[in-house]
Amino acid sequence: MKNILITGGSGLVGRVLTKQLEAKGYTVAWLGRSPEKQRQKTYFWDPMQGELDVAALRWADGLIHLAGAGVADSRWTAARKRLILESRTKSTALLVEKMRDLPERPTVFIGASAIGYYGMDTGDRLLTETDSPGQDFLAEVVIAWEQASLEMRALGLRCALLRIGIVLEKNGGALKAMLQPPVAAPLGSGQQWMSWIHVEDLAALFVYALEQNLEGIYNAVAPTASTNAELTQLAAKAKGKPYIGIGVPGFALRLVLGEMAQMVVGGNKVSAEKTLATGFQFQHADLQKALVDLFKGGGSAH
User: Fold this and answer.
1) Which of 180-184, 221-225, 229-233 has the lowest mean pLDDT?
2) Which residue intervals of 36-195 are DSSP H helices?
3) Interatomic CA distance for residues 156 and 269, integer angstroms
4) Which residues form the NAD-dependent epimerase/dehydratase domain (predicted)?
5) What is the dihedral of CA 273, 274, 278, 280, to 10 degrees?
6) How far apart are CA 35 and CA 30, in angstroms?
7) Residue 169: which of 72, 286, 301, 10 has the closest Cα?
């Protein structure tokens, strides 16, 4: 396996993953809406319009599917919720449809999923891949996304899905949002669980799934979850920002964020046991060390 095609390659995770794959000797191309703007070899697609250059699929030995509209990028209006769902399901269905009649196509599909599958607030219960899904908006999105991805099996592809936790990356995602205010503070009670993963470990897990013949669904979270207060305090310290232990009240978050507040006031404690049992080794299993690594020039630079 030499040629790897990535959707969502220009995102936070995609860039780190591209770098790791290229360092191992793979040739990497992306699917994107503006190929001319990318320095990376990029084939055209527009999933919402149902368009895709099938030359990309003929070229690729393996396909890694990361694309999807950001869940926390803006308020969940009806239109935004539709985009969050369809950017995942339509893009996946398009890949399946275009591959169906191709004699030359990838033999492996590694797809992104999310721990949102379990529901936005699951309290203190330790969740494994066999737990039943939640019933809120994000759970519905992830259920539909996984169902679309598992259609790859009908085409004879080996299929692995990674249920991704909160990705720690200094230039974006949760950390950037948490550390944006002048003073860092927990959200809500601060006691809600956050199942996190260092971006370099997440990229490495995608590579591992590709190379080690993983199949089925795996939680992509570090071995130990942390509370929101602990993560915020350690992140503030690693970045050298002031921290106060008084949480931003849940009602205030609901005013600002609307329905999306459930995502930050709630939380999940997710098990990494199945992932560890495959032999995968986390380089950043300790939260404090992971944060120090990110803010001392570790993580991705872009």
Assistant:
1) 180-184
2) 55-59, 78-100, 137-150, 173-178
3) 34
4) 4-219
5) -50
6) 8
7) 301
Asked whether 234 and 288 are in contact (CB, 8 A), the reply is yes
Distances (CA, A) of 20 to 12, 25, 28, 170: 13, 9, 10, 18
The secondary element (H helix, E strand) that includes residue 297 is: none
Q: Is 101 strand, coil or helix?
A: coil
Residue 297 confidence class, pLDDT cut points 50, 70, 90: low
Please give the model's pTM, rounded to 2 decimal places.
0.95
Given this model, what pLDDT does residue 300 score? 44
Complete domains list, the chain, with CATH: 3-295 (3.40.50.720)
With tokens 């396996």, the residue in question is 1
Residue 106, SS3? coil
DSSP-derived pairing of the beta strands 193-194 and 166-169: unpaired
CA distance 263 to 84: 14
Q: Other C-beta atoms within 10 Å of 86: how many?
A: 17
pLDDT in tens, 246-270: 988 988 888 888 888 888 889 999 9
Query: Average of pLDDT values for 163-176?
Result: 91
For residue 221, pLDDT beyond 90: yes
Contact (CB, 8 A) for 184 and 229: no
Give the amino acid at 1.
M
Q: What are phi and psi of 162, to 5 degrees?
A: -110, 115
Tokens of 177: 């949002």
Report the relative pairing of strands 27-32 and 42-46 from DSSP bridges: parallel
